[in-house]
Design brief:
Number of strands: 10
Strand content: 15-25%
Helix content: 25-40%
Shape: globular
CATH class: Alpha Beta
Structural class: alpha/beta
Largest sheet: 7 strands, mixed
CATH architecture: 3-Layer(aba) Sandwich
Distance between the termini: 9 Å
Number of helices: 5
Order of helices and strands: EHEEEHEHEEEEEHH
């Protein structure tokens, strides 16, 4: 069985809830970025999530987590990303924290799986969007909470397929 770790940063609990659902769907373990240790970033499949704050900032729990990622060799490691944002109130920085995580893990050599279509979202722009796709799962608990569980379920199915689980 694959070792799957879901490391998340959450202020209001929305990203934590999503992380717990993802961990349950995939048989993994959810760990707050605030509590993460360097060895937590060593997994067969690493799933990283963050809410976006301010003007596109990563959630505060990730301050130490990003530093730990700097020391990780993610060459050819499987990484998936997810995040929470507010596409109506902060449409020009929607899920930018996912873009920050993407930049960091690709710099470290990770193989990122789990892209997600941007179709149907009502945001202006996002550093997590490339050619009409988010680099990971985009969630909006503020405006589309009714879609969250189904989006997670479908995304986890995609991860299982892409990772060969």
């Amino acid at each position: 069985m694959a070792d799957i770790k879901v490391i998340f940063g959450s202020t209001t609990g929305n990203t934590e809830n999503a992380a717990n659902i993802i961990a349950k769907e995939l048989g993994g373990k959810a760990i707050s970025a605030a509590d993460a240790r360097p060895e937590d970033f060593n997994a067969d499949i690493l799933i990283l999530g963050s809410s976006t704050w301010g003007v596109g900032e990563i959630q505060d729990d990730w301050i130490g987590g990003l530093a730990m990622l700097n020391d990780c060799d993610l060459k050819d490691k499987i990484v998936a990303l997810f995040g929470e944002g507010d596409q109506m109130g902060f449409g020009d920085t929607f899920v930018d924290a996912v873009g920050t995580l993407y930049q960091k893990v690709t710099e470290r050599g990770a193989k990122v799986i789990g892209r997600w279509s941007a179709e149907g979202y009502k945001h202006g722009s996002s550093t997590a969007e490339i050619n009409g796709e988010f680099v990971g799962l985009a969630l909006d608990e503020d405006n589309e909470s009714e879609l969250t569980f189904e989006r997670i379920r479908k995304w986890c199915g995609r991860l299982k397929s892409e990772a060969g689980l």
